[in-house]
Amino acid sequence: MAAPTALVTALLEALRDVPGLRLSVPTTHTLVPVDRLAVDIGDTVVELRVVALELPLPPLLARADKALRAALLGTAWANARLRLVVTDLDAAALAGESGVTRSGSDEPR
């Protein structure tokens, strides 16, 4: 089943409203919007790939789940399994947890 463009757009907009996450997309120079590459919609599963900008993950992913579930309401995917795949942690997420800086050094800034 092909996912309607409007649904993908709604999911992208919902995730943009969740601080601490960004879409996990390839770095490329193209005129095609790459945000859509972070979203896969199947018959029974909706998957979004994200990068965490902060920790801890459980409350962050719970906020994302709530926002994305709202975007799925009233669609054919309202009861689909929602899968959020954290593909990476931004260095900023680790700085507050372990003292690691953006440069990778463990010296204080």
How would you concisely characterize the structure shown here?
By secondary structure, the protein is an alpha+beta fold. Helix content is 33%, strand content 21%.
**Alpha carbon gap, first and last residue:** 51 Å
Helix content: 25-40%
Nearest-integer average pLDDT: 86
Rg (CA only)? 16 Å
Q: Could you say which overall geometry the principal axes of the C-alpha atoms support? A: globular
The CATH topology = Alpha-Beta Plaits
Number of domains: 1
**Strand-residue fraction?**
15-25%
Record the SSE blueprint:
Elements (H helix, E strand, L loop, with lengths): L4 H12 L4 E3 L15 E3 L3 E8 L4 H16 L8 E9 L1 H8 L11
Parallel strand pairs: 3-4
Antiparallel strand pairs: 1-3, 2-3
Helix pairs in contact: 1-2
Question: What can you see in these coordinates?
Answer:
It is a single chain. This protein is of the alpha+beta class. It has a single domain, classed as Alpha-Beta Plaits (2-Layer Sandwich). Helix content is 33%, strand content 21%. It is built from 3 helices and 4 strands, in the order H-E-E-E-H-E-H. Strands 1, 2, 3 and 4 form a 4-stranded mixed sheet that branches. Strand 3, helix 2 and strand 4 form a beta-alpha-beta unit. Helix 1 runs antiparallel to helix 2. 15% of the residues are buried.
What descriptors fit this protein?
109 residues, alpha+beta
